[in-house]
């Protein structure tokens, strides 16, 4: 089958479109004829030797942790999925999952049925960012109705889903983005918007119960000033999580890091929200698998609205 592989860690040029062996499946897995794979910042961070690189083991490595496609073969112990089923998933993270490929072997506890009204490309982008948003808001953030939430990088992959999920949970939602994204954030449900290019985040939002920090580093530290007493920040970029947590502790604030976990039940809940119409996914662009280098360049620019996906 065709796939994207890297043979050495590096920038986009390290991505090579080539022939690789088709994966085999275990009893509790399905083989999926893949239609699309989602792109996330962790992909290019890992390919360049950061991110999840320490979990990858020996190179070569086929990147990608999320996908959507059609079940071709089901393992002997699989009950809920059969050949022909349309599925999507976020799998094996942080170990190698091989989703930038024509076929993917997926553990069934980490996939869900794709809603009939959802495109494969849309479903492929939902897993990693959707579960991050869900786990940050509800599992780590303990968000409840009536609370005030600030989402930093609200127009990005995680942020645009977090805004919608927080709004649906009955929260008052503030989002940060450049001015060009403000009308978009309001269309997603943001009650208030901050222009990070002209406003200081720490002075522009106050009395927050929860900050979902999609930026980390100095921006995350600045956002500690937005928390009300007893509020908490969930900081997403792992490379700066310790710095944000240390700054929060010094300031008497609660801060938590996160590592998104595969979860088929939560994927099914996201799919249900999509079917019901309360959750949308914005596709920034669909890029052919063979042109994955260009998709990594776009993602690394830091200004994608919604999700980029590779089509297969
Ligand atoms: N720990 C975990 O498990 C986990 C899971 C998922 C993601 N993450 C991390 O979380 C971060 C966000 O992920 P993502 O997929 O949402 O990223 P993304 O899609 O690449 O985010 C892009 C967005 O960031 C916005 N942005 C850029 N600079 C900004 C600033 N200074 N203030 C506010 N917004 C700004 C851009 O809006 P404008 O175009 O308007 O500037 C753009 O819409 C990444 O570092 C990612 O690696 C961690």
The CATH architecture category of the largest domain equals: Alpha-Beta Complex
Span between termini = 11 Å
**Portion of residues within helices:** 25-40%
Q: Order of SSEs, N→C?
A: EEEHEEEEHHEHEHEHEHEHEHEHE
CATH superfamily of the largest domain: Medium-chain alcohol dehydrogenases, catalytic domain
Beta-strand percent range: 25-35%
Instruction: Tell me the structural class.
Output: alpha/beta
Rounded Rg: 19 Å
| Average pLDDT for all residues | 98
The rough form would be described as globular
Total number of strands: 15
Hetero ligands: NADP nicotinamide-adenine-dinucleotide phosphate
Task: List segments where confidence is low: pLDDT < 50 over at least 5 consecutive residues.
Answer: none
CATH C-level label of the largest domain: Alpha Beta
Q: How would a textbook summarize the main sheet?
A: 7 strands, mixed
The number of distinct structural domains comes to 2
CATH topology value of the largest domain: Quinone Oxidoreductase, Chain A, domain 1
- What is the count of DSSP helices, taking H or I runs of 4+ residues? 10
